[in-house]
Design a protein that fits this description.
The protein is mostly helical and 72 residues long. It folds into 2 domains: 1-33, no CATH class; 35-72. It is built from 2 helices and no strands. Residues 1-24 are annotated as: Disordered. This is 6233_t:CDS:1.
């Protein structure tokens, strides 16, 4: 059974439009909640990846300048 943002059951259901029950609202809330731990793990992974890219970039630039020498 689908629900819309206004708290009514989907008109395609056999019950037609009807107010959502407290249980429906709680279920909908749980379905739409973000797992905070998963969110912060993803943030940390992005930060770690960015730090690794910055380190790799610095190493690459240092190696290039060592091999090529100063650019005039």
């Amino acid at each position: 059974m689908l629900r819309n943002r206004y708290g009514l059951k989907d008109s395609s259901s056999s019950e037609g439009l009807a107010p959502m029950t407290k249980e429906d609202k709680l279920r909908n809330h749980r379905d739409n909640c973000v797992d905070i731990d998963a969110f912060w793990n993803a943030v940390e992974a992005c930060q770690t990846e960015q730090e690794e890219l910055e380190i790799t970039k610095a190493i690459f630039q240092r190696n290039i300048s060592w091999h090529i020498g100063p650019i005039l």
